[in-house]
Amino acid sequence: MTIDAAAAALLISAVTLLFAFSVSHKIRSPQHFAAVLADYQIMPDGLVPAASWVVISAELAVVGLVLLGQAAAALMLAGLLMAGYTFGIALNLLRGRRDIDCGCAGPAASQTLSGWLLLRNVLLLTVIAVALVPGQGRTLGWFDWLTVTLGLAAAAALYSAANTLIASHLRLTTNTEARLWKTR
Questions:
Q1: Phi and psi angles of residue 90, each rounded to the nearest 5 degrees, phi first
Q2: Largest CA distance in the chain
């Protein structure tokens, strides 16, 4: 089974862009990311600083491997990271810990945990899995690259809109619950 070469290029580019964005805010504020990782309470506090740098390095490796033409290795690493993030969110939701920052978009866009983030991550895991399907061995023409570029812009806009909707929904729900408790 194969997918069209342009579709494969689009999916690989989208995953690479996602991890480039993700690692950029972690590099700009590694202390914030370490604090977010500690809030998940998945490992002993003493391991958090090293684990945060392992995650940052792995996300950088995803981007670097794609740039070095090792897309399959990059996608497998991206899948492992995404599965780990999904596990961390699911575990904390099961513990009833919703009021911690997911760490998804950096300190400027704090977002608490929710089932919507699990759904988003499952969709992203699906995208990564489909991107692992080999692309047809044809050379991409200018129209293919135009399609990839416009598709990537559309995917980025859709991802940003979905994240904004999830964050807005959570803030609205939290504010409404807080007002209801005040009136009781």
A1: -60, -45
A2: 66
How confident is the model at residue 150, as a pLDDT? 98
DSSP characters for the chain? --B-HHHHHHHHHHHHHHHHHHHHHHHH-HHHHHHHHHHT--S-GGGHHHHHHHHHHHHHHHHHHHHTT-HHHHHHHHHHHHHHHHHHHHHHHHTT--SSB--SS-GGG--B--HHHHHHHHHHHHHHHHHTSPBPS----HHHHHHHHHHHHHHHHHHHHHHHHHHHHHHHHHHHHHHHHHH-
Confirm if 27 and 56 have CB atoms less than 8 A apart: yes
Residue 174 is predicted with a pLDDT of 67
Burial 80-95 (b: 16+ CB within 10 A, else e): ebbeebbebbeebeee
Nearest by Cα to 120 from 53, 57, 169, 174? 169
- Band the pLDDT of 181: cuts 50, 70, 90: low
Q: In this predicted model, what pLDDT tens digit does every residue of 24-50 receive, in sequence order?
A: 999 999 999 999 999 999 999 999 999
Q: What is the pLDDT of residues 152-169, one digit of tens each?
A: 999 999 999 988 888 887
Token digits of residue 147: 């399609």
Indicate if the pLDDT at residue 120 is higher than 70. Answer: yes
